[in-house]
Design a protein that fits this description.
The protein has 248 residues and is mainly β. It has a domain of 166 residues. It contains one helix and 16 strands. It has a 16-stranded mixed β-sheet with strand order 7-8-9-10-11-12-13-14-15-1-2-3-4-5-6-16, with no helix packed on it. The two termini are 14 Å apart. The N terminus is likely disordered.
């Protein structure tokens, strides 16, 4: 199941509040964000998406903190204004070629493009992904929507199959979106459904509902050029112990 979870990231539009390195490729904007997890208080923060960085303003352990992520540099800063200090975290840098292959999102994997296919009127690229999980070779198949970069169909090693279908077009939070339903069919006969609302202008999902009550959403979206100072470390702040790098 761990391997399945790692590969499922291919199937989601880049949801900017869940993947801090995810940037809308053509549009800068700000928004309010909330993540709801069962039996936990909602996590709320403000987000600013620039052309080269993402800024998040949030409260952690009773303190207001700022996180600035620079995907192209493979660097993130966690800033504490009250203490006038910051921590730095490193991760694999994004490149301009990352959108050309789904393997850019999965470590220790090899991608092979097997051609193009039309699924329900959607033009897709068919990809085979080979990876290694605890010494065991894994093979998965993915049909990626060329336009939206969504996985329309996926086959997994345990026999599970994922299908993504657009239900309708609608407007939420004053944004024009496409509502998509994902059905994960497991070998035991159980079907698991989840939903995402894909913003056709931002080219990301601005709302997502997963099983067991987990959800995340962007509201109060304001499209426009973001101020450069939002993505700069204030002068005179002291660096303290670094956070370990994220690992897939």
């Amino acid at each position: 199941m761990r391997a399945l979870n790692k590969v499922l990231i291919v199937g989601s539009a880049l949801f900017v509040i869940g993947q801090s390195s995810a940037i809308s490729k053509t549009v800068e904007f700000s928004a309010d964000a909330v993540i709801n997890t069962p039996q936990q208080a909602p996590k709320k923060f403000k987000i600013f998406v620039g052309s080269k960085a993402v800024r998040r303003e949030m409260n952690m352990n009773g303190q207001d903190v700022i996180e600035i992520v620079y995907p192209g540099k493979g660097k993130a800063l966690l800033i504490n204004d009250h203490m006038r200090s910051f921590k730095e975290r490193r991760f694999p840098a994004q490149s301009k070629d990352d959108n050309k292959t789904p393997c850019a999102q999965i470590s220790n994997s090899i991608c092979e493009k097997m051609g193009t296919e039309n699924i329900d009127g959607i033009k897709t690229e068919k990809w085979q992904i080979l990876s290694n999980e605890n010494g065991k070779k894994m093979r998965t198949l993915h049909w990626i929507d060329i336009k939206r970069k969504l996985a329309i169909r996926e086959f997994f090693p345990d026999g599970s199959v994922s299908e993504l279908k657009m239900i309708k077009k609608e407007k939420i939070n004053k944004r024009n979106v496409e509502k998509w339903e994902r059905t994960l069919s497991r070998p035991d006969g159980k079907n698991i459904k989840s939903y995402q609302w894909y913003d056709t202008k931002l080219k990301i999902a601005i709302k997502e509902e997963l099983p067991n009550g987990f959800s995340r959403e962007l509201t109060n979206v304001k499209v426009g050029k973001q101020k450069d100072k939002l993505f700069k470390l204030p002068a005179g702040y002291m660096q303290v112990g670094n956070r370990p790098s994220n690992r897939n």
